Fold this sequence. Notes:
The chain has 302 residues and is an alpha+beta fold. Helices cover 26% and strands 28% of the residues. Strands 8, 9, 10, 11, 12, 13, 14, 15 and 16 form a 9-stranded mixed sheet that branches. Strands 1, 2, 3, 4, 5, 6, 7 and 17 form an 8-stranded antiparallel sheet that branches.
Amino acid sequence: MLSTAPASISLRLDTQTPLIWFDGEFVAADAPEAPLTTHAMHYGTAVFEGIRSYATADGGAAVFRLPEHMERMRKGAELFGIDFDVERASAATVQTLRANGHRDAYIRPLTWMGTGTIGLDVDPLSQHLMIATMAKVVHLGGARTRLTVSPWKRNPATSLPALKLSGAYVNSILAKREAKQRGFDEALFTDDKGYVVECTGANVFMVKNGAITSVEHRDALPGITRDTMIALSGAQSREVTLHELLDADEVFVCGTAAEATPIAVLDRREFGDNPVTRELSAQYARVVRGEDPRYRAWLTPV
């Protein structure tokens, strides 16, 4: 078990330390300590999601596509045999946002295998769940980005399912670190046949002659933001070669944290203005803040 001290919500709200929902209780974010034998620390046996809440036009806040995120998390937890209750986790998300007074926030739920063994059999292990909210944006955050093709290859879906399994993201960390060492912001995975897969934490789109195409690849995460962008734009979804991407008029990547991020450079290829990306990004911003009534079903009020 993690060592925690119960904390009063009203007391913590008067400080700068945010609260984390942990196994049914609120604790200060800097309070929990994990035993050194925590299984997830050794083997990455954890599942996470990246979710966003937004301040809405009516003065409140809403979580964007919360059910879809929690259902994807449930699928990942199921692989480890973790008992993941979607309704409990969803309710805890809203409660944590309220407890921290967060409106525009990044939300990080994590479920993991705790103690019981340091072997590879996960059945004897304890199971845990936490929800953290952060009033800031992580990853690319919408800025024009310098992208490079990575020498690393994406985890094949035949070896690791395209879900948010913590251990699988070592692949992304290595690729991003290598790209940053060469002066780029982000890395692009391609496969051995020259097809585009995805970035380290975002799906890829291209625009050619006004038509929007969503990159499809079996090794890529089926992104919820990607699904949103397809619904908003009517984009065609298909396999795309690196050559096609380099020949595009615009390239952008998308994800919960990245939203719609235009690509300024892909290796030696420079892209100019991004009018289609800019318009789609503005539409997305209206949708997530509840300003377009057609998509309010995607919002969970806080």
